Request: fold
Amino acid sequence: MEKVKSRHFMKSVLLLLGICGTTPFLSGCWDRTEITDLAIVTAAAIDKKDNNQIELSVQVFIPSSISSGGGGQGGGASQGGAVTTLVRYEKGSNMSDALSKLQSKLPRKVFWGHCKIFVFGEKLAKEGIHEQLDFLLRHPQPREKANVYVSKGKAKAIVESLPPLENYSGEVLRELSDLHIGMLVTMQDLDEMLTGKPQAAALPFVKILPPEKGQTKLQGIPYIVGTAVFKKDKMTGTMTEKETRGLLWLRDEVESYTVTIKPKGVKGKISLSPVSAKVKIIPQIINDKWKLLVKVNTEGAVIQNGTNLNLSSPKSLKAAERAYQKDIEKRIEMAFLHTQDKKADILGLGKDFYRKYPKQFNKIENQWNEVFSELEVEIDVMAHIRRQGYINKPAGLSEKEVKDK
Reply:
């Protein structure tokens, strides 16, 4: 027993000596890079120039702006706040060449780890983004979760803008994406779309809201105006904001936006805010006919009643729900018809058909775009209005003016 204890004690001592012996070698990191040596990129824009060169523009964070109070004031020039970012740009034969030249203009090492926004210019998007995407996915620093956009005109203008409400333009786009104003697409999502069976993709389409009177040119605000549609790696067209809403329903990404409806046979409109939405897309092959069933179950809450309908009445409520249903059906139909017209399966429906009908899909895989463009689509919407609020009757109207339909 004593021998066992003695042996155990010796092992403990040897282990302790081993730890103490290696401790001096762990006291520092010989290859570390201090944060003060980094040029932290917050957003990047990629444009195609006339001479077939790539122009890379990076929005770089200015650390000294925090101590000078710029961060607290939002960087808005109209508010007198200090600018929190600067923009540097350079041209090259490709992304790598442009970045190498750009690095020579910056005294700090370019660091992509905090870059959350990448914007492709419209001209580049139409000619193809394969090479640029390849660079971003191969480089070890850019995040795969970074959001990707296409700009109307030059992407450089997006990162150069100095919006009054946020610290920098990249933050504006990120906030809009988080609110689901438009599609939310990451670099990883884009890669999966383009390498999947349909080889089609969709990205948020952005432009600059012109500055108000008295503001400087750079104080325009980036905002999302619709969706850029890609076939393979080339942009083939755009979808309007209204069509994009239908696309969000199909992608089950509806969140915190308002639907305004007009019930049949009454004056005025009712505004609803979707409370919840469940979407199921069901591929079907019936008698060799390829079909798609879209089932939507949604509930909306009334936030404004501009009609004379008393929504506590079952008849009036049914009339409002029918209008709500028709509105959603129309939005989804518009979005789907647009994608079929472009023969661009941006929803990845080919993947859904392949999972359910692998043998049948393999036979038509090379003709999928044609099959997709002729898909029969059935849209089944169950729309309900819940929680009408404490004021079920329209405010500001007398009892005689209110109708129960």
